[in-house]
Amino acid sequence: MFGNTFGRLFRVTTCGESYGGGLAVIADGVPAGIRLTNEMIQEELDKRKPGQSELDSPRKEADIAKIFAGIGQEGLTTGAPVGIIVHNVDMHAIHVEQYRKVKHLFRPGHAEYTFFVKYGEHYDWCGAGRASGRETVGRVAGGAVAKQVLLRENIEVLAYVKESFGIKARDMGFDEVKKNYRKNPLNCPDLAAAEKMIAKILKIKEEGDTCGGVVEIIARGVPAGLGEPVFDKLSATIAHGLMSIGAVKGVEIGAGFGVARLKGSECNDPPYIKNGQIRFRTNNAGGFLGGITNGEDLVIRMAVKPTPTISIAQDSIDKSTMKEERLAAITRRDVTICPRIYPVAEAMVRIAVLDALFMWKGWEALQKKS
Amino acid sequence: MFGNTFGRLFRVTTCGESYGGGLAVIADGVPAGIRLTNEMIQEELDKRKPGQSELDSPRKEADIAKIFAGIGQEGLTTGAPVGIIVHNVDMHAIHVEQYRKVKHLFRPGHAEYTFFVKYGEHYDWCGAGRASGRETVGRVAGGAVAKQVLLRENIEVLAYVKESFGIKARDMGFDEVKKNYRKNPLNCPDLAAAEKMIAKILKIKEEGDTCGGVVEIIARGVPAGLGEPVFDKLSATIAHGLMSIGAVKGVEIGAGFGVARLKGSECNDPPYIKNGQIRFRTNNAGGFLGGITNGEDLVIRMAVKPTPTISIAQDSIDKSTMKEERLAAITRRDVTICPRIYPVAEAMVRIAVLDALFMWKGWEALQKKS
Amino acid sequence: MFGNTFGRLFRVTTCGESYGGGLAVIADGVPAGIRLTNEMIQEELDKRKPGQSELDSPRKEADIAKIFAGIGQEGLTTGAPVGIIVHNVDMHAIHVEQYRKVKHLFRPGHAEYTFFVKYGEHYDWCGAGRASGRETVGRVAGGAVAKQVLLRENIEVLAYVKESFGIKARDMGFDEVKKNYRKNPLNCPDLAAAEKMIAKILKIKEEGDTCGGVVEIIARGVPAGLGEPVFDKLSATIAHGLMSIGAVKGVEIGAGFGVARLKGSECNDPPYIKNGQIRFRTNNAGGFLGGITNGEDLVIRMAVKPTPTISIAQDSIDKSTMKEERLAAITRRDVTICPRIYPVAEAMVRIAVLDALFMWKGWEALQKKS
Amino acid sequence: MFGNTFGRLFRVTTCGESYGGGLAVIADGVPAGIRLTNEMIQEELDKRKPGQSELDSPRKEADIAKIFAGIGQEGLTTGAPVGIIVHNVDMHAIHVEQYRKVKHLFRPGHAEYTFFVKYGEHYDWCGAGRASGRETVGRVAGGAVAKQVLLRENIEVLAYVKESFGIKARDMGFDEVKKNYRKNPLNCPDLAAAEKMIAKILKIKEEGDTCGGVVEIIARGVPAGLGEPVFDKLSATIAHGLMSIGAVKGVEIGAGFGVARLKGSECNDPPYIKNGQIRFRTNNAGGFLGGITNGEDLVIRMAVKPTPTISIAQDSIDKSTMKEERLAAITRRDVTICPRIYPVAEAMVRIAVLDALFMWKGWEALQKKS
Q1: Do A114 and B6 touch (CB under 8 A)?
Q2: How far off is chain A from B118, nearest CA to CA, in Å?
Q3: Range of the domain at B14
Q4: pLDDT at B370 over 80
Q5: For residue range B75-125, what is the model confidence (pLDDT) as tens digits?
Q6: Contacts of C291 in chain B (CB under 8 A)
Q7: What total of structural domains would you count in chain A?
Q8: Helices D338-368 and D234-243: crossing angle, nearest 10°?
Q9: What are phi and psi of C117, to 5 degrees?
Q10: Which residue in B2, B23, B71 is closest to D29 by CB distance?
Q11: Which pTM value belongs to this model?
């Protein structure tokens, strides 16, 4: 497993799993002079905390972030890598035994199987280690560091639930989204659509089933010119980051897959001049031309699959005998991961944008602002 | 511009543009002992040649690939990086003058604008340099090298047009696709659908407009276990590679954005045993669990936007005056890029798969086969 | 500061400083199935502990290593990144105030000045943060992980003091070095020379001065074939790793700078056959031909400068006034860093060798041994 | 072979060997707006041309550099990667046959053996491919691109022969070196010492033997603050680059290995104020503190081993029979590589310095100067 680092100049390296001592992130490339507190990290981590509503797993995770490196005596960053750790709370033994009982059976739709193929019998069967959503603690903590640097540059990134099991939120601009997106447990700023979504989700929950959805990310204030052609376009590194989140099966930008049904004359965003700046009348491009930012809002969506763990018995394989078996219902899980995955999406986009900004501005310029 | 390298252990670095001396690729990480000829590279390059049908730009590109490095006296690779160059054919002067005349006007939907923002007035306005589709010559040549290594491992990758302006090909397995996908100029193996697509495209062409579509890539024979969690999952590096292709606005895997409308009980692919191996009854996962290959065919789709250059006048900006202007019709271009972009998709997936295979197997094992 | 990661496939990322919460390392690329305990890490960390003899700083660092990630329920690695943290012990306040008092004066020969230039006034003046030798805790912990993987492959790496203020140890083979190198506080296996070195060092200590030396690293059991031409030769990545250690001003391999005084007929190591294998009668090459290992012991030396902190007043600059000042004597420091830097050298060579081994063997082969 | 790229933001990727079609470099990360001509590249390549004096191999290499990518219609860089190719001149067949006759015998001291181990029987035995000094054509061409960017920043890098078979040039400052270093075929600015060196070298040549030496590199105008702690200090990336050059067995900075014989009070460079800037009275540090540049000249030396090919019969191994054999005298080679390796050293230092400068300044600032 070599792939636990994301970014080039702003670079996040993570480790940790559900049933070890804790999870950590090292964020490298943080300019000196930025105020960074445990509370700033905690605010982001709390967004992905389970048990916040009846949509989530009832599991309790009291994730307390502690910055242990990279902060000077005045509480500001020093230019050194920032280290953050989240200790796992105990009550271990019971859960380990629960996992041990079923560790011979692969859960359908779960990465446990491929981890077994790749890492062999010593893979982490207990909560499935790095294949668990718990892995994203490190991403979110790293993204919280990026957030503070981006805020100094007036760049804001937010993510929200755009679609849930076929019900779509209407299209809204950045300001309306920002105003409303935290107003319900689903994190959907179209409050009317959210009600319908939640009713539908609860019905699926009653069936013992799960569902997925679409999360949209909007970034405002990103300057034109970010991204490195031809392979490291910012659109490509963002797609890399988002597709690396467990459960994500698709990423699209601007009009996305809709471009397959547009004519060129419809798809091209007409440019015009506003306050002496070039702007675009529409945003089918989602803020990117040739993978380089064009000054408009970045608009990106990702498809999130239904939680694979369900309360319905399924076909499985017993890995010790290599025989087909049935896996009984499992009851504790999120009926939909969407309302907990959005802060992860925010984190990945923040990291990718900051990384690209570094290439453009350099260390000296980003630091001078302090 | 720092982003002209893709891959980590099998690594492709490209350069070149339409109106310089030529385009080149350096493919690093090629095991010794593989037969590699100019013809093998040419075969792939010819797939992206324009002027093959009435769907393409009438421009003629006699792209002749020449391997100039990395091949020993017996015609086999030596373990050294393989260098391939494609010289641009002449008739330069006329085109340069054509471009010079309109270089003050940004073409809507084109990356020229962001290249100007990023690189300033010295950006390559002549054919727009690396923002031109011609850049993909290097990708395709690099992918042709990867193809030969993958063939020794019995890994096949093919791409075809799945959807064109709203008309979809029916779902087909690898074998049927392979048999039929080169039978029409659109590279669509559903021959009946292809006819409708072509009729529609020609109609759009008459209107002076353009259209996009969806390209699907299938990879067969990819062993289970490839991809590096958590950030460098193979699904993520493939998304990176495909999204880096100009005109691509979305990437999805398996059921893709369709997962947003599936329940967990529908989306999970039930495992079973076939010849002592674990297989899956469906492939909503598109061959990936947790971003690691699961032994099934990889199934990936990308959304391709309509060619931005159209034969209809559009709003534009004069960059020298920063005033709004009209850009007159431009006549020479592909009505749809889909039938020429599929070899680029094949190339990117091949490079990403071979790169992941190297991490898994190591240099010694991949080379021993020779 | 973006440079806190070393290695490509086996990759170590570190953070932490003297006066924050602690220091940590994330070691990525660890195969599953390896037994790894806190004690194994501790053993290496203890080698660099100060206060072990009158040669070292009297400062006490009770560095307790704790693995918090990457280990499964059976105490074996899982293939996930290994996280290790070393908490800083308290008694902070006093030292912080000591540093605060002199923070306006640059210490000659110390990196504090360049850190100030690079990171500005918010650089970590308290113990000088990442410019302190304390930074190497993370390197040594990461190297301890590499050590366990290498031991399974029968690769041993050891480092010792070869020269101290002009007194040289005689040349010895791997076995004699291994037998004796931990027998004195200087870590010099030539026991007679060590006595003279120590006497000399103590005399310099009395003068309030400091001195440097040369550390030699020998690696046994490294298979032929490691290293990636032309830029990532193993000799080059090792030089990178060693030169990145604070206080190191030179790296040489085999005959090293001595080659400048050899003829080709003397410098070439004559090959012969031993047990059907090609071996070399001499080892001027230090185990490398063309930067690729040739099967002989790797022999590498690095030059270590005298500790810059001395008990003699020196010229300095007051950074707040930009005026020339005198910096009074500082009493607490190592008179020579050599006996504490050797485990860092071992760590860097282990990381570089394991990284190259991964490229050669691949993940699958290295893991299978478990 | 994956290691054919050097640098991170300014990045050079090379390919090619003696008996293929040619050698090439792709230089990525070149700001737009820089004048770059074939002549500028040629000037650097000519420095490493053989046959310039009786010290060199009589082989003729008419290396003509041709930039084929990355230059716009006005002759300025466009921000796209710069591609440069040097075609091999013909007369192939004769040499190939000469190599074929002796390809079963390993040349002592030559990388051919390890290339055989690594790449197997299909390694490039004809001139030994990438293990040949001819590989450096790509490095020098890439360094020539870096040179033009650095000149705009008033950074000058030069290398010269400091020592040859035990005869040392006296210490000289940058200006004296610059004035005299190209005045003799050895490239040694101490004209008196050079005479003695040349006499000695010619005597060794008569014996049929070869010799090595030491090359010193000085860089003037490098701003303070470059280099990324803790692993990617500029001193470390330069050591990486220089040690990757074939025949180099050691790298040292400032006082180098001499620090082992200095006391702290002698080794520390006393700071003072000159024109409001901090400067240092001596330069034992060689321009680096903590691996970050301190504003003084960079002073770096590398040890160059004697050419392994000699006119004296030596022990060898027949690789087809794995029996010990004698290898007869070979007559055509450089008696010392020093006068041809110095431009390679210049190139590597330029690339590493520019790469570090990019991280510090960012793309935007470096480009604006144009």
Answers
A1: no
A2: 5
A3: 5-368
A4: no
A5: 999 999 999 999 997 566 777 888 888 888 998 999 999 999 999 999 998
A6: none
A7: 1
A8: 140
A9: -60, -45
A10: B2
A11: 0.97
